[in-house]
Design a protein that fits this description.
The complex is a heterodimer of chains A (482) and B (485).
Chain A (H helix, E strand, L loop, with lengths): L2 E12 L38 H13 L7 E2 L1 E5 L9 E5 L8 E6 L5 E13 L3 E3 L8 E3 L6 E7 L6 H18 L11 E11 L9 E6 L2 H20 L7 E6 L4 E7 L9 E2 L6 E2 L2 H9 L5 H12 L3 H8 L2 H14 L2 H19 L10 H12 L5 H12 L6 H8 L7 H14 L1 H9 L2 H18 L6 H13 L1
Parallel strand pairs in A: 11-12
Antiparallel strand pairs in A: 1-9, 1-10, 2-15, 3-4, 3-14, 5-6, 6-9, 7-8, 10-11, 12-13
Helix pairs in contact in A: 2-3, 5-6, 7-8, 7-9, 9-10, 12-14, 12-15, 14-15
Chain B lengths: L7 H9 L5 H15 L6 E4 L1 H16 L10 E5 L26 H8 L3 E6 L33 H8 L5 E5 L6 H6 L3 E4 L20 E5 L2 H11 L17 H4 L8 E5 L9 H16 L3 E5 L7 H16 L18 H12 L2 H14 L4 H22 L5 E5 L15 H5 L6 H6 L3 E9 L2 E8 L5 H14 L11
Parallel strand pairs in B: 2-3, 2-4, 7-8, 7-9
Antiparallel strand pairs in B: 1-3, 4-6, 5-6, 5-10, 9-11, 10-11
Classes of the chains: A alpha+beta (482), B alpha/beta (485).
Chain lengths: 482, 485
Amino acid sequence: MQWETVIGLEIHAQLSTQSKIFSASATTFGAEPNTQASLVDLGMPGTLPVLNAEAVRMAVKFGLAIDAHIAPTNVFARKNYFYPDLPKGYQTSQMDHPIVGKGHLDITLEDGTTKRIGITRAHLEEDAGKSLHEDFHGMSGIDLNRAGTPLLEIVSEPDIRSAKEAVAYVKAIHALVRYLGICDGNMAEGSLRCDCNVSVRPKGQAEFGTRAEIKNVNSFRFIEKAINHEVQRQIELIEDGGTVVQETRLYDPNKDQTRSMRSKEEANDYRYFPCPDLLPVVIEQCFLDEVRASLPELPVQKRERFETQFGLSAYDATVLAASREMADYFEAVNGVCGDAKLAANWVMGELSSLLNKDNLDIEQSPVSAEQLGGMILRIKDNTISGKIAKMVFEALAAGEGATADEVIEKKGLKQVTDSGAIEAMLDEVLAANAEQVEQYRASDEAKRGKMFGFFVGQAMKASKGKANPGQVNELLKKKLES
Amino acid sequence: MSMHELTLRQIASGLANKDFSATELTQSLLARIQTVDPQLNSFITVTEELALSQAKSADERRAAGENGALLGAPIAHKDLFCTQNVLTSCASKILSGFKAPYNATVVEKLASAGTVTLGKLNMDEFAMGSANESSHYGAVKNPWDLTRVPGGSSGGSAAAVAARLIPAATGTDTGGSIRQPAALTNLTGLKPTYGRVSRWGMIAYASSLDQGGPLARNAEDCALLLQAMAGFDPKDSTSVDQPLDDYLAALDKPLAGLRIGLPKEYFGAGLDARIGEKVLAVVEELKKLGATVKEISLPNMQHAIPAYYVIAPAEASSNLSRFDGVRFGYRCENPVNLEDLYKRSRGEGFGAEVKRRIMVGTYALSAGYYDAYYIKAQQIRRLIKNDFVAAFNEVDLIIGPTTPNLAWKLGEKNADPVSAYLEDIYTITANLAGIPGLSMPAGFVDGLPVGVQLLAPYFQEGRLLNVAHQYQQVTDWHTQAPTGF
């Protein structure tokens, strides 16, 4: 049977506010346990929450960026359950009246086509603390530093049809929140976490299958692996005559499998009700207008501009617009060299592999945009060939010169464009390979084509790569045909 | 006159005239609490050291030229206001040993006005009750008859002030918890408009209904205390950012032209007719002072008790979740696992009435019942509010009884909690609507005090205090003290 996968994602993005959503404590990651927990975060009797206006602004930014309806009022509700790292015995969240209503986000698939993913809602809530189960001799430690950290929970429609689409969607959300400056996107530190709702159904069937929710998957790679594993598990289960049960599962990256955490029957009745300690939040039109005016250019807009303004392919534009830092770098390179296609090729090619190899972010690039742009200028004016440019780039990366010009000068990499010099060099090459010249001249057109490359190689070798390849080709052809 | 008989206003002039010092006054009252309170059980904690140091500092401030109305005034706080480094128990076992790490805004404001805190007052556990019998620290007795209840939940506050242990106290009112004990002990007690007094540091029972306020022997002292307690607090999102009225200045306004409404629903079945007569006598007195009277209707009052006993327990069930034995307060012995820790700490830590309300509230909020109970109750709440808004288009003030009955015998209603719930029938509507309400002495039946309740539109605490004060200028019910105190 042909199966279709249906996926909906819940992404928790930690908002990068200075202080917590309902208290003045700092939100810095990695502080000593319980040093960033105020009376409010500790759930001390008598304490009360006060909403952080910046968290509201950030949520509204997100809402506007996904074209969502922003309701004139939103309401905080209490989600009641007991857990030691939940100090008040309830999480302050939003239920019936979220701050961000229905919106959507376009993602680019591998084949270059775009797909629109619906976003059901996004709501503000507070994070819980952490339970530490090691080092306490049979007891558990509680760290409430994270308790009260503002989260934006972004809930997608079940519009996603494969693990790859899911990853593309999470990447698009990741890029968006970073563009907006509302989340640092650091998945290793838990700033962006993902719950995946996965089900399968026979292709063509209208109703959804029973879904399982995989909790807290925290990297792009694990999202893909966890979903693929879960889809396989469900298909095998059904094909073996079993049925999928609605449950929460955990993904174990070490074993690459998901396991059951709790079933629907064990699920809590959270007894949501409006939080009586907080007033409904009223969003006025003038506030919306002000936030809208402050929005930066978004990934989709940037991608479109890269295509139309620079004539880049959809793929190149998507890759370059994927992060604000990458896009800014590319635009800076282009600003220096004035050749968007070359700039795109270098940023996506040599620069990206250099960064990947050393596991660096683009902000940490050893080659600055100015250096790379300056180097591309020298390719354009034929001072160096593309091949030599790779050497120059490596030298710049290794810090062997402040500018491409300095490297070219110091290493004597300037391209030879003097026709006389090239001709003399070619004459030597042809003389040294007289036998091959004879063969060439005796061959038919097809064979000649193959042999020509041999002479070019010899010539470039003789010039140590510095001869202008265009001139070499042209003059060599002339000499061999004569 | 002995020092313990003085009102706040008299104390202020005594201190200003150097008739006595704050320290002398404090020492005298501390001694009186020690000898008298064992019969009443109104204090959970007496903060002798704190009181003497605050009194000393008040004397120093006065010597330095300060002359605040509350500088050196002895008071005590209901034991749900957090007081730094002092046991704050909510009269519950579950807060055993809990010394609050901070001061409630009300405590802070009164302290900076120069009040001297003599201690923390007994109450119904977590403010749940109308008789002050649900306290882990034992029942409080009514100084007017030691075999009777003082009312609740601010029963310790009422008993201590009525017995002249302190001139005034703080209380809180979620469904009548200031006004009802004031009525049963011959005091004046005010529940302000919701949002007028900060709830920061006031341990929550039902957040949307709770409001702190003063209990004292007369309206003037309530005005003095409210002036210092009230005001916007950025730490409480439900506190209202509106300027404070001058409550003392409002006291002397003449009542000519005051339009009084008598809701017919307040004089129906269930009311002790003798109380009804006392209320009408108050109305007659106010007419002499220039007020006009008309009958009005609050048609949805009959639904108030069921609505209240859904909303308040629902909020309480959530508010009391933080008492879990994990971070503070009582923890059961040798828990075997997390569930055991929760179940036994809460099971052993909470008393019967608190558990009953947590269960009711949990039920009302649970899936499948939420719409039928919680949502319905909120709709009733809106109707009750609308009733008041409509009534206040016709009248300036509503008058009725504070309670349907006189103070009852200790233990009398223990077997039947609903009969105790019905004692709140006249007071809870003000909490549901958020309007201010005041109870003041209106005479005696069988030697027991009767209270009359005044209700006013939002933020018109000044009007309530004004009417009560004018009434107290021409009557002396409020000056009468229980025999032996």
